[in-house]
Design a protein that fits this description.
Layout lengths: L1 H23 L4 H22 L7 H12 L4
Length: 73
């Protein structure tokens, strides 16, 4: 049941990425590379989360990363 939904979502993501890449060609180089980086990180997190067998919360992972960088009282 869940696999058709995942494949449908993946197809929609690919269409959106193709449309984004067409528009990013007109952006300034720094904006283009920042956008490519964010898209790449987003895809990596999505693939990592969908391949796990257990529940994984991205917000918890991000909070652990941020806690290393921010001073806490």
């Amino acid at each position: 049941m869940i696999k058709p939904l995942v494949y449908t979502y993946l197809a929609m993501v690919i269409v959106v990425l193709v449309m984004d890449f067409r528009h990013l060609k007109q952006a300034a180089p720094i904006n283009r590379w920042l956008s490519y980086g964010l898209i790449g990180v987003g895809i990596a997190i999505w693939v990592y989360v969908t391949t796990l067998n257990k529940t994984f919360y991205v917000t918890v992972w991000i909070s652990h990363m941020i806690q290393r960088l921010l001073p806490l009282p």
